[in-house]
Amino acid sequence: MQRVTVVAKLKAKPGLEERVEKELLDMVAKTREETGCINYDLHKSLDCPRTFLFYENWVSKGCLDLHFSTPHLTRLSELQAELFDCPPEISLLKMVSRPE
Question: What is the dihedral of CA 4, 18, 71, 5, to 10 degrees?
Fold first, then answer.
């Protein structure tokens, strides 16, 4: 099985930064309990407090696919138009070099 890394960038609508941060932190707690989640880390931009970034690692693409169908991610998708300026930018990556 090959690990999968995800980098997801989201931008809150102006004035909704606190609500978005709360929603995303709720997702962090739930996602970290999912099978196959190695890490699920939320970051907030120092330069633009409306910008959030997830850095995630999953045991496999199959585990990530299951994550995409969870109730908490489905809920966030339903709130997308209300909370975010634009659709999230999501990149899927594979590791090509490991630290020694």
Answer: 0
User: What's the pLDDT tens digit per position in 16-39?
Assistant: 999 999 999 999 999 999 999 999
Q: Could you please report the per-residue DSSP string of 52-83? A: EEEEEEES-HHHHHHHHTSHHHHHHHHTHHHH
Q: What's the CATH code of the domain at 35?
A: 3.30.70.100
Per-residue buried b or exposed e for 29-55, using 16+ beta carbons within 10 Å of the residue's own CB:
ebbeebebbeebebeeeeeeebbbebe
pTM of the full predicted structure? 0.91
In a domain, 29, yes or no: yes
